[in-house]
Amino acid sequence: MTVAEELPETPETADEEPVKQRKNGLYPGVSDELAENMKSGWADTELRDLEPIAQAAETAARRAALSARFPGERLVIPAGNLKTRSNDTEYPFRASVEYAYLTGNQTEDGVLVMEPTADGHRETIYLLPRSNRENGEFWLDGQGELWVGRRHSLTEAEKRYGIPASDVRELAGALREATGPVRVVRGYDAGIEAALTDKVTAERDEELRVFLSEMRLVKDEFEIGELQKAVDSTVRGFEDVVKVLDKAEATSERYIEGTFFLRARVEGNDVGYGSICAAGPHACTLHWVRNDGPVRSGDLLLLDAGVETHTYYTADVTRTLPVNGRYSELQKKIYDAVYDAQEAGIAAVKPGAKYRDFHDASQRVLAERLVEWGLVEGPVERVLELGLQRRWTLHGTGHMLGMDVHDCAVARTETYVDGTLEPGMVLTVEPGLYFQADDLTVPEEYRGIGVRIEDDILVTEDGNRNLSSALPRRSDEVEAWMAGLKG
């Protein structure tokens, strides 16, 4: 990577923050002749035949629902800014879920503003326009289009997102002068928040954030379709991993991580979260993402991974696979217990059921097995009342799924964990048993075995649909599936 040079000071840039030249850049400046040369000789690249994004109708409906909830108030929803990774490099940008959900746009620095009117709100999406060719920004600025790629013009953005577009560089000043009640989604854009600092309160802003989280509890048809695409790609990613387990044995868990990541980047936007590629005793660490350990024949591989689509919807699937293709007798016993617990949990997912029902059903099965195996003293009701099974089950049995892997996380407890399932909700069911390598309360042969099975479940009008059913779950089916892929 080379360095962006300092913009020559012109009337257009005299009042702007100059581009900072890297200390050890090779060019000391820009000659007047070169600056003039770079202004001309470029083709017109404006895109004039753009169609609206696929979810334009859905994002419009979401904004209408938001408008109805907060009449008479100015609503400000930022996308966020680039974050520095190190020195002059940035992390890949991912727009805030709230902003992407309402607009479909994913570019940094964007802000959706909904201005109150007599009959609702007037919407504007504030974006950076195409980089300036008159003042040299397009080739001298580190975020100019010759450095990082072309941005859509404001006219193009209006066509794509169905929202009038304006220059975001003018927004902070306008917000400072704004009057009337305002709410902003916090935590994404410090500059926008600073412009509103004397106009907003934390309590009111949190109400906006909570409402936007609860809006996503029930998915529309577009969202369900995107989640199915994410799951289908994830299934193919799991197949990819099984085919290269011999290479992972020769290297490490990193080979598994890289293999799945390739599928995610080819068919989607990214992985939806850090892939958990946990072999052997690493499977007992719930969020093992270092992925630097050995992969050994005879051990289990707990693979918890999901592809994220280009619209940010992610799958979240887990399978626990025998590295050599066959479960040992003890591994199968533990795996089958988790499978039975998951079956009970999935059966409890249906409209009108309490959200907690699938968790309780799964935990009961696991507690029964732990008592049966003599690992904890019964009766089962006592174990569940005291939560004694949690030494080996550790986590809750699932969560909402969507644009975040743990979607709707700031929804009110009464509408989420203490709520009732409705058609259109999508959640994971993922019981597990984990026997830590240093757990002296279990027989030695159990130690270091961790098993989790996770699927993505859509609540339907008459029950549920397993979006990830294309991946085998039953132990004998897993073995046959792996043999077929390896063969």
UniProtKB/TrEMBL annotation:
Q: Which domain of life is it from?
A: Bacteria
Q: Which regions are flagged for Acidic residues bias?
A: 1-16
Tell me, what is one Gene Ontology molecular-function annotation carried by this entry?
metalloaminopeptidase activity
Location of region: Disordered: 1-30
Enzyme class label: hydrolase
UniProt keyword terms in alphabetical order: Aminopeptidase, Hydrolase, Manganese, Metal-binding, Protease
- Which biological process annotations from GO are given for this protein? proteolysis
Write down the SUPFAM superfamilies for this protein, in alphabetical order. Creatinase/aminopeptidase, Creatinase/prolidase N-terminal domain
The family classification in the record reads: Belongs to the peptidase M24B family.
> Per its record, how is this protein called by name?
Xaa-Pro aminopeptidase
Provenance organism: Streptomyces gancidicus BKS 13-15
